[in-house]
Amino acid sequence: MKLLLLLVVLIAQSTVSAHSLYYAIGESTAKDRSDTQKLGLIFKPPTNIGLLERNNLYLTLDVSAASWQNLYGPDLKAGAIIPMFNYPLRQQDQWWFIKFGIGAAYVDQTRWGNRRLGSNWMFEDKFEVGIRANPNHQIALSFSHYSNANTNKYNDGLNIISLLYQYNW
């Protein structure tokens, strides 16, 4: 899995306009507090969207792969593609940011611990707040919610809180 993701990163960097790479560690908010890891790429769209940028809002695409610890069976693997809006804020010499978006996620199992996810295909709602230490490094607190939006009989959903490090190039 890690080798495959590294290969994807190298190919993506040479063929499309990848902007940054991130790694996040976190845990679920469920009773079992399962650990999670996520590795992702952030892409900038090839064109500017004037209306958004005039309002200091920038669109990026978040493509990620994740592993979720499962205390009751094999660990889960997940992948997601999320259009994200980035709102940077400058306060004196520090750059803060808020990011938010909703996208599609695929999880390889429909149960995580005692949670019945109901479907392999889900929506991921993601919200981040962080600081850009310098042009290349940023740290964020991330909250993600996964749900099938009641498209299935079961929809226990799940929440993950993560600490995220992002390297920009």
Overall description:
The chain is mostly beta strands and 169 residues long. The protein has a single domain, classed as Porin. The chain contains 2 helices and 10 strands, in the order H-E-E-H-E-E-E-E-E-E-E-E. The chain has helices spanning 2-15, 50-54, and strands at 18-28, 35-43, 58-68, 76-91, 94-107, 111-112, 115-116, 121-134, 137-147, 158-168. The strands form 2 sheets. It has an 8-stranded antiparallel beta barrel. Strands 6-7 form a two-stranded antiparallel sheet. A hairpin with a 2-residue loop joins strand 8 (121-134) and strand 9 (137-147). The mean pLDDT is 87.
Comma- or semicolon-separated keywords:
169 residues, mainly beta, Porin, 8-stranded antiparallel barrel, globular
Q: What is the residue-averaged pLDDT?
A: 87
Q: What is the domain tally?
A: 1
Largest sheet: 8 strands, antiparallel, barrel
Q: What pattern of helices and strands is seen along the backbone?
A: HEEHEEEEEEEE
Reported by name, the CATH topology is: Porin
The strands making up the biggest β-sheet line up spatially as 1-2-3-4-5-8-9-10
> What is the annotated CATH architecture?
Beta Barrel
Uncertain stretches: none
CATH class: Mainly Beta
The percent range for helix content is: 10-25%
Any idea what the shape is?
globular
Radius of gyration over C-alpha positions, nearest whole angstrom: 16 Å
Structural class: mainly beta
Number of helices: 2
Give the termini separation: 24 Å
The count of DSSP E runs of length 2 or more, i.e. the number of strands, is 10
